[in-house]
Amino acid sequence: MKEIIIDTDIGGDIDDLLSIAMAIRSPELQIMGITTVGLYSDRRAKIARGLLDLNGLQHIPVAAGASKPLSREWEFREYPNQYGDEMVHFPIEENKDAADLLIELVNDLPGKISIVAIGAMTNLAEAIKRSPDFARNVKEVLLMGGEYLSHYNECNIVSDPEAADILFRSGIPITAAGLEVCLPLAFDTDLLIQQLKQTGTTQSLYLAQLTERWKTVGVNRPIIMFDAVPLAALIDRSFIQTELKRIQIETRGQFTRGMTFSQMPHFGEMSNCEPNVHVCTDVRHAALKALFEERVLTETSCLPLGKQ
């Protein structure tokens, strides 16, 4: 069983919520904590708290984190559209923020905890800045962010390029799934909602309700399970193929700010920098979709699971 922390902007796009539901139903993973990032990060934390509590996982701490990037403003002002007034009293950590929780959990178990980063990298950057030991003690970071086969300002990186730059320079082992390898993980929104309702458990009905809230904000595309990729890689590394590359974050370009850059020399030039990221080059999309359907869309019980 692999010990993980999920750092997420849950509440914006729906794939965070659904991916975390898959993680909860995966016996290969032990969730040690969830941290949130983005506008109204406290509301995002309450969404995650509700999902955990439905599964009897009240012992897992949830902490709200950065509500703004390290500099400037969010590139995408994406609000937690899945939040509802019924969540206002859901309990989250009050005496520590996301960076503090990350530092506490990681430093208590050095070399044991993997972090799944499926939002802006602001909380991780803050943890690196606050604790000299944090970067040394993280086992690895698996993230969804960037694009590595073309030039594109992907949301999780462009939202806070300075934070991503700190992470990519930190020396922490990184595996990155870019936008391009996640796009085929698409589900019809109406069909997925129907399947969740038919499953009829407390979790599936919660997921259906929040997916409908997401749909009402006017998102006119299928559900794409971007954030399932790094979690699936922890469940079974054979879900992905990777290539070790030197990746840098562009923080200043007028048109390229937030892009992930990797030099591709044509004349045998040697880079002076060591490769730092295992870039995902392929995903077993059909197998991953089948795993998601098995663990989220056809679950047979939502009784409290207790401690994982």
List key phrases describing it.
8-stranded mixed β-sheet; 18% strand; 308 residues; alpha/beta; 12 helices
Summarize the structure in short:
The chain is an alpha/beta fold. Helix content is 36%, strand content 18%.
What is the helix tally?
12
Q: Rg, please?
A: 18 Å
Helical amount: 25-40%
- Mean pLDDT across the residues is 93
Note the gap between the termini: 9 Å
Low-confidence stretches: 301-308
Structural class: alpha/beta
**What string, H for helix and E for strand, traces the elements in order?**
EHEHEHEHHEHHEHEHHEHEEEEH
Shape: globular
Proportion in β-strands: 15-25%
Task: Please report the total strand number as a whole number.
Answer: 12
Strand order of the largest sheet: 3-2-1-4-5-6-12-9
Main sheet overview: 8 strands, mixed
Tell me about this structure.
The protein is of the alpha/beta class and 308 residues long. It contains twelve helices and twelve strands. It has helices at residues 15-24, 41-54, 98-108, 122-130, 134-137, 155-158, 161-168, 179-182, 189-199, 202-216, 228-235, 285-297; strands at residues 2-8, 29-36, 62-64, 113-118, 140-144, 174-177, 186-187, 223-224, 240-245, 248-249, 260-261, 277-283. The strands form three sheets. An eight-stranded mixed beta sheet has the order 3-2-1-4-5-6-12-9, sandwiched between helices. Strands 7-8 form a two-stranded antiparallel ribbon. The chain has a two-stranded antiparallel sheet with strand order 10-11. Strand 1, helix 1 (15-24) and strand 2 (29-36) form a beta-alpha-beta unit. Helix 1 (15-24) runs parallel beside helix 2 (41-54), helix 1 (15-24) packs across helix 12 and helix 9 runs antiparallel to helix 10. The termini are close together. The relative contact order is 0.17.
